[in-house]
Description:
Blueprint: E1 2-7, E2 12-21, E3 24-27, E4 31-34, H1 36-40, H2 47-68, E5 78-84, H3 88-105, E6 109-113, H4 114-120, E7 133-138, E8 143-150, E9 153-159, H5 165-175, H6 183-190, H7 215-228, H8 233-262, E10 266-270, H9 277-289, E11 293-295, H10 299-302, H11 306-320
Parallel strand pairs: 1-5, 5-6, 7-10, 10-11
Antiparallel strand pairs: 1-2, 2-3, 2-4, 7-8, 8-9
The structure holds 5'-O-[(R)-(carboxyoxy)(hydroxy)phosphoryl]adenosine and zinc ion.
Amino acid sequence: MRVLGLETSCDETAASVIEVTDGRAHALSDVVHSQVRMHALYGGVVPELASRDHLARVLPVVDEALREAKTTVDAIDLFAVTSGPGLVGALLVGVQVGKALAWARQRPVIGVNHLTGHALAIHLSESPPEFPYVALVASGGHTALYEVASSSETRALGHTLDDAAGEAFDKVGKMIGLDYPAGAAIDRLARTGDPARFKFPRALKMRSSLDFSFSGVKTAVLHHLQKHGRPEGPELADLCASFQEAVCDSLVTKTLRAAFATGLQRVVLGGGVAANSRLRALMTERGAKEGLNVYVPALRLCTDNGAMIALAGYHAFSHRGGDLLTLNADAAWRI
Ligand code: KG4
Ligand code: ZN
């Protein structure tokens, strides 16, 4: 079965064709047009600009995904599109295009939850985990823990009570003069820094809940900067490393706690923050100490892409069939 996946929930216009044979999926193409340069001018995503850019780019991106996969729209068996959560105007672009293609070719369309896409993205890897597993999905807009019981059953275990982890990276980046989005730049700066130099808070660490909070660490960095000014050179590296350590420590601690609470042996990472080198290393190291199998996707599968949407769409379609053409964007869709 060939599935075209379409992703327009935030600031990436992405499309991918995947082929699923005997339950194994692989991407034939994976095209991502990023809007980050445009939004960087404003220090964050401007929703109206995002919608307009998706509108301008979506058809060329779909064409490129079909070309790269050496296929045509007539050979697509299912159109899968992110229908939530995300920016409503941005989502609507993908949903309308997905529905229009499906209607024109008399093929099914299915609306996909963006976070389910991140939680399942690992199945596009060479050696994917078996179900069930705990998934940590940490991105710019969301941070949550899920119990992924099967390809069609995902249950929320906890989520952030305030900022998403990626949002904390982006806001701290802005404070120290980095362009949006700042996660990858902080990751790079932190490499030569001392993570123990400054003690930033780990919120809700002692509580048994599986929720997160990142507004405290962000405010702690702000207070530090107000007191000491913006550091340079090695000081800046230490600040980035210490902030990153606080976020990663919280993410890993809660993920391990989720594994113990559910009795699950497998842990999977997903979302843009899963591209963070310290998070990848710390989760692997502490997971192994606890006897867990930790699965870390390739960088390209962590950040927003159409392949994970195609894959999640395939599984949802196998489970419940397609959606009607009344499918709509659901900006606040919660699992
Ligand atoms: O999943 P994603 O591509 O888009 C959303 O659904 O939000 O995630 C983007 C987020 C941004 O906040 C970005 O700063 C963060 O992921 N990010 C990182 C890294 N690469 C991207 N955060 C920390 N370290 C990284 N290496
Ligand atoms: Zn995402």
